[in-house]
Amino acid sequence: MKADIAIIGAGPAGLSAAMYCARAGKKTLVLRGKAKSRLELGHIIENYPGVETLPGAVLLEKMEKQAVSFGARIINADAVSLNLESEPKMIGTRNEFIEAGALVLAMGRGVSKKTIHGEEKFLGRGVSYCAVCDGALFRGKKTAVYGSDGEALEDAMLLSQIGCEVTLVLGCSSQSCPGLAEKASGNGIILIENASITEVKGSDAVSGVKIKASGSEFEIPVSALFIISDIPSGTLLKDTGIEVTGKDCVVINRNMETNIPGVFAAGDITCGVLQAAAAAGEGVTAALSALKYLRGLLNKGGLAAPG
Ligand SMILES: Cc1cc2nc3c(=O)[nH]c(=O)nc-3n(C[C@H](O)[C@H](O)[C@H](O)COP(=O)(O)OP(=O)(O)OC[C@H]3O[C@@H](n4cnc5c(N)ncnc54)[C@H](O)[C@@H]3O)c2cc1C
Asked: In 10 A of CB 74, how many CB atoms?
């Protein structure tokens, strides 16, 4: 899929940026990941200018409707890989690659997702967030998929189809995730329900995972672990060349430009004042800077027309 401007994050920062980009006539794509916008956690918001007291989720819905009314497209997908030094910028989801002339990072500060012990160490060496992208590297091998929804089941089925022996570790039970267990067992997948993965084991590459289920902890040998959940922004930005502080805050200037041309950041991910109105304002600045960047590229003839 191609876009003039891709925006990762559908909170106040991302949606404000989307409104400006779409209203300027640009093909604008917003990715909304599994993680909730922090605004949805703020039950009542009474300090967003010009808006009467509202539940955060309602305010967010209004922002989304406004962005969509100008032509922004919102898709439910986590960005799982980034190539930011390329032209166009490449954003990988679990299903496809998106090419964008400019990119706005608006992933917020996340909602306290803990990484598994060993997850970051083995990222790219057996730990992956995307079976479509990396599954074929483990054809015929033992693999584990860890998640709590239909996307985890789909990835497990895909790995099984390409000849992997798959253990699906579900963070939920048959009651809380109805239908998943039946489909998994019908497809030759080993299922462990109501469980969590507590550690990724290995020396140079993944050799196994530690699983906690029914009050006990045990290890199974696998060559790869596919984690199907939201991704901490620090992990997503690792090795992309984007400058971040020790606390994974993206470093920006007044124009919301990062150190990589064509990549902008806005909202809580820049670790400003962590307020919705401030995030929206940064989103607007990031959008205007991205539009200016595209004008520059277009003038140089360096940007392919979006398809
Ligand atoms: C309990 C609570 C109460 C609050 N109350 C107030 C208040 O009263 N007033 C106020 O002004 N502010 C309040 N805030 C702060 C406000 O909610 C945040 O400042 C604001 O939501 C930040 O906006 P954002 O767009 O930067 O990030 P967020 O709103 O957090 O949105 C982040 C977006 O990024 C997406 N995302 C993350 N990773 C990925 C990925 N890999 N791929 C695709 N998408 C991804 C998420 O799905 C989400 O859509 C409150 C926050 C909390 C937690």
From this structure: 18
pLDDT tier at 216, thresholds 50, 70, 90: very high
Largest CA distance in the chain: 63
Orientation of helix 276-300 relative to helix 56-69, angle to 10° = 20
Instruction: Give the global pTM.
Output: 0.86
pLDDT of residue 80: 93
* Structural tokens at position 145: 């998929």
Regarding the beta carbon of 9 and ligand 1, being less than 6 Å apart is answered yes
Q: Is the Cβ atom of 232 under 6 angstroms away from ligand 1?
A: no
Residue 181 alpha carbon to ligand 1 centre in Å:
33
Q: What are the Cα distances from residue 124, in Å, to 78, 93, 142, 143, 259?
A: 17, 16, 16, 14, 24
Segment among 39-43, 51-55, 214-218 with least mean pLDDT: 39-43
Give the residue among 241, 197, 227, 222 at the shortest CA–CA distance from 82: 241
